[in-house]
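Chapter summary example.
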Amino acid sequence: MANIKSAKKRIDVINKKTAANKAKKSEIKTYIKKFDAAIEAGEKDAAMENFKVLERKLSRAAGRNLLHKNAVARRISNMQRRINNIG
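The structure predicted for these 87 residues follows.
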């Protein structure tokens, strides 16, 4: 445990940021599960709506270094391909 006041403050800040990042990642994972369920059910409209939301959230996460930009690009590409294969 830190003894210096500023180090204690930094620990608090890190804990807050970690919690926020964890919440954002969890939200993204939830939308991915909804997207997968829509794809499995063959509901193209629901999948497209989830995809629009997911694309925006994933891009923001990449911009904030929450997720790697290439991993985000790969996920978006795979989701788009899955939507196109429903038709």
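To summarize the output: The two ends are 57 Å apart (CA to CA).
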